[in-house]
Amino acid sequence: MRTSANRIVATVFGAVYLLVGLLGFTVTSGVGFVATDGGLLLGVFAVNPLHNVAHLLIGGALLAAGLIGVGAAKTVNVVVGAAYLLLGIVGFFLAGTAANVLALNTPDHFLHLASAVVLLGVGLATDRASRPVAV
Questions:
Q1: Is the pLDDT of residue 39 over 70?
Q2: Taking the domains of the chain in order of start, what are their residue ranges?
Q3: C-alpha closest to that of 73 among 22, 126, 20, 113
Q4: Given a cut of 70, is residue 77 above it in pLDDT?
Q5: Residue 45 DSSP label
Q6: Which of 21, 34, 97, 132 would disulfide-bridge 75, Cβ 3.0–4.6 Å?
Q7: Does residue 62 have a pLDDT over 70?
């Protein structure tokens, strides 16, 4: 199966997260690598250099999985979706504390939760004939 919902979502989300990671560096000049307050990407989403690196790694994993095949895309969609679900929830409790090493703010939490819904929804509900890659 060359085209699947998992491959499309992984490829698109991967490209977007890579772009977001790169653009993040344009607003984090002078921001500490793990600063709890970061620059605002698009004037809304708080990022620091560590957050940008995380976006680059996640974007790279999603894009690579989307290009590799359905099983890889399905697996990475579910794993990244679960991680974003956890981060989206935990982020509400981290904001304003010294543990907020990704400089998360409220719009970040909602974006992470929305990403989780899409990635988990597609990863768990589509391409059922395909087996996820064992990790």
A1: yes
A2: 5-125
A3: 126
A4: yes
A5: E
A6: 132
A7: yes
